Amino acid sequence: MASLSPPESGHSALVRSAVFSPDGQLVASASDDKTVKVWNAATGEEIRTLPGHSSDVISAVFSPDGQLVASGSDDKTVKIWDATTGEEIRTRERAQRICQKRRLQPRRQADRFRQLGQNRENLERRHRRGNPHS
Fold first, then answer.
1. Distance between CA 53 and CA 69 in Å, rounded?
2. Kind and range of the H or E run holding 109
3. Where are the beta strands (DSSP E) in the chain?
4. pLDDT in tens, 75-85
5. Which helix (H) or strand (E) holds 90?
6. Model's pTM, two decimal places?
């Protein structure tokens, strides 16, 4: 009888949550290995790992447009990531109240994501005009 090889990718600890992107093409998973992983929903292929939390990651959600991922951790931070590049965009420290709920609420986060997206678009627009601080 042939033995099964361990997978070459995947989480190394318990997965706390998994969520589909709004278009259904990606899945983000949050794990006790202190990472979020983004997967191709159709193939199951791991696309990228989002490291950076110092404790278990309890929850991850996509923004309504699928461009961003937010992760909440027992380290009492919420991190915002670019879903395409994996770049960490922002960290909110002392997010104990959010993280104590043990999961982020996609509907409640929608307004925050919308605001973050608008702020990012405004900054990019100002930068293109050569006036990044106005």
1. 14
2. helix 106-128
3. 15-20, 26-31, 36-40, 46-50, 57-62, 68-73, 78-82, 88-92
4. 888 999 999 99
5. strand 88-92
6. 0.67
